[in-house]
Design a protein that fits this description.
The chain has 402 residues and is α/β, with parallel strands linked by helices. It is built from 7 helices and 28 strands. Helix 1 crosses helix 6. The longest helix has 20 residues. It is elongated. The chain binds adenosine monophosphate (AMP) and magnesium ion. The site of magnesium ion has 5 residues, from loops.
């Protein structure tokens, strides 16, 4: 009989986490430091971009209709009447019927012209340019509002800004953006056997791996992780760490002690100071997980095994954090792969199997959840839904990349 009398499924656990998730708090920050942050408001174009009609090749600009019916044997003959120089419109340079002007890449399309042909596709005879095929209206031209029209949404709220987004913001003259504040996530490591990374473990002791791992993931995800050290499996130590962390953090993760043994303090301490909403999830690894709340602060109890803690972070905690960032769903990179081996699974629980990717094939990396090497030797996770008894070798799967 399970120690967990009322384990909930992953969907219900995530729904519970989302129910207690704080809303995003917007802040304005410089655009050039905004990569990786999530927009709180749409970025709207305040002007047309590029703002003027311009050529995308080195060539000749003219009226497209002057090349209608042009061919090798019957080229259009256009009189070259001048050149466009870069960076400013050419005043007084007008293209009329039967004429053209030389234009460099990025040059302002002169008045009257509506198409450009590449130099390579022309021949010259003195001031006459021969065009041997019809050129369509707008060919090789970027019109003044073709990239972004004034008033259009350039980047929508909820978007995690990429380096290329930052370039677009610069092109559009944005020096600041409104993004969600980085959620402050407190991390408390628990266990009488834990020692800090700087210590040499004595018999029966292990170094605290989870705090560093959780903090690293969260920092990269756009959070501000704060470590509250290692606490012993005693109510008083838990409460001392919690009372320090609670006023400083938006969310608290307590690693270890989340099961139902005598030494497992997390559920009792959360219940004593707030409420436990979920204790036990039909998730593997990650069954002994707690979702609770103290005041308005969400508090998670994560299993101590590093691999389990990592899976729970990704599957259960990230949806809440993404909500706090204003994202519709967690930002996870995935890739399609073919399963290199069959994966048996117990029906009734959602399983996450660590896999190694090799040229499009995902090979399971089996190992006990206490093994650290499985985290390093794998590239990500394959999800096996609760309702099935496993996945066959050769099936197409999505791999959630680390
Ligand atoms: P627990 O969830 O507290 O029962 O711990 C399960 C296992 O994970 C035990 O072997 C612990 O020693 C180990 N463990 C707990 N916390 C950590 C941690 N922060 N870093 C590394 N291992 C841990
Ligand atoms: Mg423990």
């Amino acid at each position: 009989m399970s120690k967990f009398l009322h384990p909930v499924d992953v969907a219900e656990a995530v729904a519970t986490a989302l129910r207690i998730a704080p809303d995003p708090v917007p802040e304005e920050i410089p655009a050039d430091g905004a990569t990786g942050r999530v927009l709180s408001t749409d970025v709207i174009a305040r002007e047309d971009i590029p703002g003027f009609d311009r050529s995308v090749v080195d060539g000749f600009a003219f009226r497209a209709e002057d090349t209608t019916g042009a061919s090798e044997s019957n080229p259009a003959l256009l009189q070259c009447v001048g050149r466009v120089s870069m960076g400013s419109p050419e005043t007084g340079l007008v293209v009329t019927k039967g004429t053209c002007v030389y234009i460099p890449t990025g040059g302002v399309l002169p008045e009257g012209a509506d198409a450009v042909v590449m130099v390579e596709h022309t021949e010259r005879a003195g001031d006459t340019v021969l065009v041997k095929r019809p050129v369509a209206y707008g060919e090789n031209v970027l019109f003044h509002d073709e990239d972004y029209r004034c008033g259009a949404v350039i980047l929508p709220a909820g978007r995690r800004l990429s380096p290329q987004d930052t370039g677009v913001l610069a092109a559009c003259g944005r020096t600041s953006v409104i993004v969600a504040k980085r959620p402050v996530i407190g991390i408390i490591s628990t266990g009488n056997e834990l020692v800090p990374v700087t210590a040499t473990p004595g018999p029966g002791q292990v170094r605290d791996a989870n705090a560093s791992m959780l903090a690293a993931y969260l920092r990269e995800y756009g959070c501000d992780p704060r470590l509250y050290g290692i606490v012993r499996d005693e109510r008083g130590s838990f409460e001392a760490a919690l009372s320090k962390a609670l006023p400083e953090c938006d969310v608290i993760l307590i690693s270890g002690g989340s099961s139902k043994g005598d030494r497992d303090m997390t559920a009792g301490v959360i219940a004593g100071n707030g409420e436990v909403l979920v204790h036990g999830i039909t998730l593997a690894p990650g069954k002994p997980t707690i979702i609770g709340r103290i005041g308005t602060t969400p508090v998670f109890g994560l299993p101590g095994h590093p691999a389990s803690a990592y899976v729970v972070l990704i599957v259960i905690v990230l949806p809440l954090i993404s909500h706090m960032l204003g994202e519709k769903k967690p930002f996870l990179r995935t890739t399609r792969a073919v399963l290199g081996d069959s994966l048996p699974s117990q029906k009734g629980r959602e399983e996450y199997i660590r896999v190694r990717l090799e040229e499009g094939t995902a090979y399971p990396v089996f190992g006990k959840s206490g093994l650290l090497n499985t985290l390093v030797n794998s590239d990500g996770l394959v999800r096996i839904p609760a309702g099935i008894e496993g996945l066959e070798k050769g099936s197409d799967v999505d791999v959630i990349l680390w």
